[in-house]
Write a structure and sequence with these properties.
The chain has 208 residues and is an alpha+beta fold. 19% of the residues lie in helices and 42% in strands. It has a single domain (6-207), classed as Nucleoside Triphosphate Pyrophosphohydrolase (Alpha-Beta Complex). It has helices at residues 22-29, 83-90, 149-156, 193-207; strands at residues 6-10, 16-21, 31-43, 46-54, 65-66, 69-72, 100-111, 114-126, 141-148, 163-170, 176-183.
Length: 208
């Protein structure tokens, strides 16, 4: 994704105030729109949440677990166009109409020379896909794993320190390697804990 891509920028009240390049958006800290889609799959009465493993080559948050599919909404796009991120990153064709809208959640992450103020348009997809269905855009995503949703909830609400993840990743030689490990919160992209908790609450409302 190019640093010169144009994104819409917004004020504190979510009014659009112009456009700016992606690099400027993160340097200055403009509010901008993102598309987030979380995959949940129910198997034998058990809900599993799917997570992507970000590529080691990513400039931001390499090799960490993240939302199933997510990306910026470009200046010439609407929220509906965000579904392209799902196809691009993980190779699953999903119609916008099949997504469950969870609302817009704003959050802000600040680190040195990087301010990420996102208006995240968050969606849920009740998936029937197996691991074999995923085709990864390896420059962006190096793996897909899943965790028991109840475990994931307990991790972000502080009731447990580690959870089991299972899935696969594509290694540097383009081989598929199975992943089966215990991870703690440090293995996840450092969205605010309150963001994870808000997303979880919204997913719970749709799955209970």
């Amino acid at each position: 994704m190019g640093e010169q891509e144009l994104l819409k920028i917004f004020d504190e009240n979510r009014n659009q105030i112009g456009v700016a390049t992606r690099s400027e958006v993160h340097r200055v800290g403009h509010w901008h729109e993102a598309f987030h889609c979380w995959f949940i799959r129910n198997e034998q009465g058990m809900d599993y949440i799917y997570l992507q493993l970000r590529s080691k080559n990513k400039k931001d948050y390499p090799n960490l677990l993240d939302i199933t599919a997510a990306g910026h909404i470009l200046a010439n796009e609407t929220v509906k166009d965000g579904v392209r991120e799902i196809k691009e990153e993980i190779g699953i064709d999903v119609a916008f109409e099949d997504l469950i809208e969870l609302g817009v959640i704003d959050y802000c992450v600040m680190k040195e020379n990087f301010i990420d103020k996102e208006l995240a348009n968050v969606f849920l997809y009740k998936s029937k896909n197996s691991f074999d269905d995923f085709t990864l855009q390896v420059e962006e995503v190096s793996g897909i794993v899943r965790a028991n949703f109840i475990d994931f909830v307990q991790l972000w609400f502080g009731e447990r320190d580690e959870i089991e993840i299972r899935g696969f990743e594509i290694d540097n030689d383009e081989n598929t390697v199975l992943i089966e490990e215990s991870v703690n919160r440090d293995k996840f992209v450092p969205h605010q804990t309150s963001f994870y908790q808000e997303v979880i609450q919204k997913i719970k409302e749709q799955t209970s």
